[in-house]
Prior knowledge:
102 residues, mainly alpha, Rossmann fold, 4 helices, globular, GDSL, SGNH_hydro_sf, SGNH hydrolase-type esterase domain-containing protein, hydrolase activity, acting on ester bonds
Amino acid sequence: MVHQSQNKFIEPIIGIPPMIDIKNIRDDWAAFTDFEAVCRQLEQYKEWIIKFSSTFNVKFINFDMKNKNIDKVEELYIDGLHLNEKGQAIMAEIFCSEMQDK
């Protein structure tokens, strides 16, 4: 879709998803999914997005909150996977900050 957007003179911006809090994933979800493997795949996906963006000169916003000096990651999630209001507010701050820089 990046190339399709560019062909229509639309400048795409790719969002790199935030980390997940595997310690607080709901038990019923953890019963059928290996979230350790999901985290490893997510890290590989993030690396791929950065490489893709660099190769094709596409802007991206990294929503990973590891470098945001957050003491308690669990305070950002409803269920370890979906962000709560505080987590979404941090994502919005990242977005606005990045858009000012771009």
